[in-house]
Design goal:
The chain is elongated and about 70 Å long. Helices cover about 80% and strands about 0% of the residues. The chain is mostly helical. The protein has two domains: about 80 residues; about 70 residues, no CATH class.
Amino acid sequence: MKEFLGGLWALIWAIIVSVFVLTLGTIYTLGYGLWFSRRAKQGNRWTSLFRYLWKLIDGWLAAIGHWFYETGYALDLGWNVSGEGIEDLITAEDDTTFSEKNISVSASVGKLEMEAKLNKTGRWLSKTLNFAFGQKSHAIGAWMFLQEKIRLKKELFNQES
């Protein structure tokens, strides 16, 4: 519940701040691009305007892409919480990280893979994740990334994961 309320609070403030910052920032960037293109003394002045426009568009697309990724990751965390069915399909183990919060399905699979506790279906799932994400060992990397993230949170922010 703490994560839910903290996330909701952060979202509300992010929306409030975004209304001002994104509106004023976009208007300012467009205005600055026009002003700069009129003041440029060398080269084609219009290219400087398009460079500012491209930076604006590229930045927005990067932010939207990041939002897509984080939304997908948040869904993945939810799949792991309700992942008893996945666990039963990929391993004979009962004491796994499936059904625990703040762990992705990939990380749970990676932990089992490192411990050599995956059955044939589990190994196939891991290979499918490798293919889908274009990585050599996606699940193991997800588990190692999670462990490092937990360590950094403890070290830098005195937080438990």
